[in-house]
Amino acid sequence: MWLGCWTHARRYFLEAARERPRTVARILRLISRLYRWERVWDKRQIGPRRAGLRQRCFERPLRRLRQLALTLSQCVLPKSGLGQACAYLLNQWEPLTAHLGHSETRLDNNLVQNAIRPSAIGKKNWLFIGHPTPASARRSSARSSSPVSGTAKPPTPTCAMSSRACRQ
Question: Phi and psi for 44 in degrees, rounded to 5?
């Protein structure tokens, strides 16, 4: 099952709001209508009936949204922010509307992204685990950890480091 994320679609329009504020506001209102229904259904704990409710309640806002995006894509530059937002929405239309047939899905993947954020933030730090430390730290640690003579060979370069970086 391939599902789209409405938050990503919405973000493209938010970024393009300066180009046509009133038009973008209409689009954002249509998207927020979907989320409003979802909040109501969450409070009522609708469960398996959600797919049927989505098909019935989302029909009009989605039809308007698609028509507006098609019209806008014809009259704005494709490389403009609004053109890119419309292109994203139209290219992702099938996965974005796939939620209509599934009660157990969410309109966005914010919960998943928030859950994996710590590992995404830490990956830059973890990238260097097992790699030699920066050059200045290597020099000082090599001097202090040297055997009896007080000198040590610099570490051999890894594929992530050039030999020039090791000499510095």
Answer: -85, -5
Separation CA 140–CA 143 (nearest Å) = 5
Whether 124 is covered by a domain: the verdict is no
Q: Do residues 30 and 80 share a domain?
A: yes
Joined together, the tokens standing for residue 164 give 């020039």
pLDDT digits (tens, 9 = 90+) for 60-95: 999 999 999 999 999 999 999 999 999 999 999 999
For the chain, first and last CA: distance in Å?
A: 52
More confident residue, 126 or 156: 126
Q: Residue 149's domain spans which residues?
A: 129-167
Cβ–Cβ under 8 Å, residues 89 and 69? yes
DSSP per position, 20-45: SHHHHHHHHHHHHHHHHHHHHHHHHT
Q: Do 51 and 77 fall within a single domain?
A: yes
Cβ atoms within 10 A of the Cβ of 50, count? 22
Could you tell me if 12 and 92 are in contact, meaning their C-beta atoms sit under 8 angstroms apart?
no
Is residue 108 domain-shared with residue 139, that is, in the same domain? no
23 and 87 inside one domain: yes
pTM: 0.68
Distance of CA 47 to the CA centre of its chain: 27
